[in-house]
Design a protein that fits this description.
TIM Barrel; 7-stranded parallel beta sheet
Amino acid sequence: MLDKQHFDFAKQCGCTDVVVHLVDYFYKGNQDNKNNQPIGDNSGWGIAGHTSDLWQYEKLLDIKKQIEDAGLTWAAIENFDPAHWYDVLLDGPRKQEQLEVLKQHIRTVGKVGIPVIGYNFSLAGVSSRITGPFARGGAVSVGMDGVDNRPIPNGMIWNMVYDQEAAPGIVPPISQDVLWQRLAYFLEELLPVAEEAGVQLAAHPDDPPMPEVRNTPRLVYQPHLYQKLLNLYPSKANKLEFCLGSIAEMTEGNVYEATRQYADHISYIHFRNVKGKVPAYREVFVDEGDIDMGEIIRILREKNFQGVLIPDHTPQMSVEGGWYAGMAYALGYMKAAMNFIH
């Protein structure tokens, strides 16, 4: 989707900024998901490792030029490719080598002038989702009905396969404390580089926000755990990728209180709505869920938030080009809310 057609589509919808994914994954097993089974199987969403060339200076500069030629600004890159940092997540033998790769990515992104890299420090990644006609009028969306706790096979991380020839076996179980220790080391290594490069590292909360998914621990599955992450390494580069849907799905706290508490630490916001909480929720249209999105806008204005709002994803409408229709609907709502809610 990194082409003129899609950049023009974004501009036509009233967008000003773009958040780009450079991870080339695809869904498996969800084309005929009539029984609401979890998306994918143990082979994962797709194959990691096709994107090394996309992180090169000249390639990023080329993408940036295309974005700017469409009258937009490149606001952030979302997600490192799992192939670039699986042993950082797993504390494996290539951890230091891969940390150096991530440091070079950060330096390159800073040199190009992209201010934010979003990341999700998670072994299972986005997991346990089901698809179905969950949104208004039967629009197809995603949700959750219970936790997928199948062990993760060797050679797979963040729902993607990075080693198709990995030895049989599963990712060893660890405690939440151990995963927090791994995150702390990641931040200690990368945040000084990010500060020097002028790049913010923005952490996504767990999706779904459960204490455990696929027999692996999670980090930010309640709102107060975002503060624990910020406290690990106080820095102007230690920021949040704030997902309203994930926060609202959490079983503790309040999405409005969390927005007010963390507004000064947010790089950009996933502006999407849900009904319900884990382990049973549905993603719905931006104007029909449990979150009063107008109140979120008011809080952000009160806090003088200067970052970017993105739909992230949205239900697909029952027309040709359903993704485009759903995205245009969400963006139109967001544009109107930003213009008229005070």
